[in-house]
Specification:
Jelly Rolls, TIM Barrel, Immunoglobulin-like, 9-stranded mixed β-sheet, 3 domains, 33 strands, single chain, 668 residues, alpha/beta, 8-stranded parallel barrel, globular
């Protein structure tokens, strides 16, 4: 029987069996003109939530310098609701989140202003005669990997015995001392003291909290400041497990930006760690200790094999400050030749940005900062702030009116909630279908953005799009969001979109490398979301150039869907992109089955590519799209790898419902 007739016969036979059938034709000789740029697999890092502090940064203590005013009222209210004892601690003069070792001892603490080793405050602890008095903080130790912990503190003796005790104790069990050491405070001047604590195997169960304690006895009075406490295996202050996860993601870019950018002054985050000042992160109402600054960012990028992509402060900053940051980074990065990606601000169209410039002023401000940067680095690749794909026209028009060469990229963001739709009384599946359709709607909007650029002859060949933030969020696991399997399906669908538009959108940054769609740390355990694993399937694949793929699949329409893009028609249930490696010896199909309850069997025809008999297949799937990874089940959802026999250049494959699949074929 003729091969084409045989393939038709197979499709008909499968159809008779009652299964859903699709046809995928891959024309391996019809390749795109340019490679898929690695930079579409960029990621994003910002001090928000516990992404850096209590996340990437391995320091186990919060508020190490005993400051007040580092958190917004909303943040503190939420934390006190979670830990009511912190309200009592605050009434005793203790700064968040420090607690009294023994609340029954009452007022034995005083915050001192202007007499501090670091920042503004120091804490005076006044021990009772013949009793132990101290402060404590609940922490979670990475006990599953390390038993040894090192730290330091600043102290100044005021009166009484000079001995200070540092210990780890059972949570809310002050008499259960797990490890302890003592230091003698030498005199009445501020000095730094180092210490080490080591636990015994089995003393603390993984995921259980302990109390870190600083205490005095016998009427002693000592001022304390700047307490550091790290796992002994930290890497330049960073969590080694997070470094390992980030390195394996193979991301080429780490964007250091976000809402904090418009109020961030880079000089606050350089110099000796002990001298860096703690302050309020105005964008997120949380503490900014400035311990993770420019040098730490560059070291992180080196450790994971990525380049920094830094957003400059066009809110409260100045062109001179921006130029100074570019010079500082260039002097310390690799060959010191510059040429890095620099963003001229972050979401400057938003009134939530500190010092936002307004539509009338943004172009002139962009030009001013661009000129300052180019004076110190003519090779710098500049990204001007653009608007979101669903509301870009007027804002982007103002930026595109600037002289040619002012910038090389125009940014866009899409951080959207999946629980907001226009339809009244939608059923749960409608929320899901609307969310899974968003990558298709975004691809069409990006092409509209490209058309606007092309209307400007001066920009057509000079300006491309940089998708520097993308995230699909939701209030909980009932809808697709960055933490569950539904979010992984959207992530893979959007990566398919990015591959298809990579000729004019060569830079993209997934939100975020730490927390959101990436790596998480809870109760001392590091794990990755399903979206991380989907991203990793793409970012580590040996796929360099798109090849023509024609798919005949069922589709669905979304009307009155997500508030941001409510109308999306012809959404393919099975979304397929195909690419070859650099030598054209390997071909990979990236496939997303958006159908929630139906496996899709596809007949795959490879034209111009003769595969070996064995293919490698990775499948990411869960029992439910609402399922998650967490600290108790860190590996609940991750890709499963298997091999598949391929007899000819045509084969059938059944894609499980709600799954992401990568099929890698090698040629003879």
């Amino acid at each position: 029987m003729h091969r084409f007739a045989l393939s038709v016969f197979l499709v008909l036979e499968i159809a008779r069996a009652g299964e859903h059938v699709a046809r995928i034709e891959v024309y391996a000789a019809n390749r795109a003109k340019q490679d898929i740029p690695r930079t579409i697999y960029g990621t994003f890092l910002e001090p928000i939530g516990k992404s850096i502090y209590q996340g990437l940064w391995a320091q186990l203590l919060e508020n190490p310098s005993f400051e007040r005013g580092l958190w917004s009222y909303r943040y503190l209210r939420r934390e006190i609701e979670r830990q009511p004892a912190l309200e009592r601690a605050s009434s005793m003069g203790l700064p968040f989140p420090w607690e009294s070792l023994d609340y029954d001892q009452g007022m034995r603490y005083e915050l001192r202003w202007g007499d501090a080793a670091n920042s503004s405050n120091a804490l005076l602890v006044m021990a009772l005669p013949a009793k132990e008095t101290g402060v404590r903080q609940q922490i979670y130790l990475p006990i599953h990997r390390i038993l040894r912990y090192t730290g330091s503190f600043y102290a100044r003796r005021v009166s009484g015995p000079p001995e200070v005790t540092i210990s780890l104790r059972g949570r809310n069990q002050p008499h259960q001392v797990l490890a302890s050491t003592s230091k003698v405070v030498k005199g009445e001047h501020w000095e730094r003291y180092e210490f080490m604590l080591e636990l015994k195997p089995g003393q603390v169960a993984p995921l259980d909290p302990v109390d870190f304690v600083i205490s005095l006895r016998n009427g002693s009075r000592v001022l304390f400041d700047q307490v550091f406490f790290f796992p002994a295996d930290h890497l330049n202050g960073m969590d080694p497990e997070m470094i390992a996860f980030a390195r394996k993601l193979n991301t080429p870019l780490v964007r250091f930006g976000g809402n904090f950018t418009s109020g961030y002054h880079w000089r606050d985050g350089i110099g000796p760690m002990d001298k860096r000042i703690s302050m309020l992160n105005l964008a997120w109402g949380m503490a900014e200790y400035n311990h993770f600054g420019t040098d730490e960012l560059l070291r992180f990028c080196q450790l994971i094999g990525a380049e920094p992509q830094i957003a400059l402060n066009l809110g409260s900053g100045t062109p001179e400050e921006a130029a100074g940051w570019v010079r500082y980074v260039n002097d310390r990065w690799r060959d010191q030749r510059g040429g890095l990606l620099w963003e001229l601000g972050n979401e400057l169209w938003g009134t939530f940005q500190i010092g936002y410039p307004t539509l009338e002023r943004v172009a002139s401000k962009t030009a001013e900062f661009a000129a300052a940067v180019r004076q110190v680095d003519p090779r710098a690749r500049l990204i001007a702030t653009g608007q979101d794909p669903d509301r870009f026209h007027d804002w982007n028009a103002a930026q595109l009116a600037l002289p040619p060469g002012t910038f090389a990229f125009l940014s866009t963001h899409f951080v959207v909630g999946t629980a907001s739709v226009r339809r009244s009384n939608p059923d749960p599946d409608f929320f899901v279908q609307s969310a899974l359709a968003l990558p298709v709607g975004l691809e069409r909007r990006l092409r509209e953005m490209k058309a606007q650029v092309d209307e400007n002859p001066a920009a057509r060949e000079r300006v491309k799009i940089a998708f520097t933030e993308w995230l699909f969020a939701g209030p909980n696991e009932s809808v697709p969001r960055f933490t569950n399997m539904g979010g992984a399906l959207i992530t893979a669908g959007f990566l398919n979109t990015l591959m298809r538009v990579s000729d004019f959108t060569p830079v993209a940054n997934m939100t975020g490398l730490i927390e959101f769609g990436g790596i998480w740390k809870k109760r001392g355990r590091v794990y990755a979301t399903p979206s991380y694993w989907a991203f990793r399937m793409y970012s580590t694949a040996d796929a360099k150039r798109l090849v023509e793929t024609r798919s005949t699949v069922d589709k669905y329409d979304i009307t009155e869907g997500n508030n941001r893009i409510p109308e999306i028609r012809d959404v393919p249930y099975l979304d397929v992109v195909t690419a070859v490696n650099g030598t054209s010896s390997r071909l990979t199909l990236f496939c997303v089955n958006r159908h929630l309850n139906r496996d899709i069997t596809a007949h795959v025809a490879l034209i111009g590519f003769r595969p070996r008999s064995q293919a490698r297949v990775q499948v990411l799937k869960a029992k439910s799209i609402h399922e998650v990874n967490d600290e108790t089940q860190p590996d609940c959802i991750r890709p499963v790898e298997k091999t598949m026999q391929v007899a000819h250049s045509e084969f059938d494959y059944t894609f499980p419902c709600a799954s992401v699949t990568a099929i890698e074929l090698s040629s003879y």
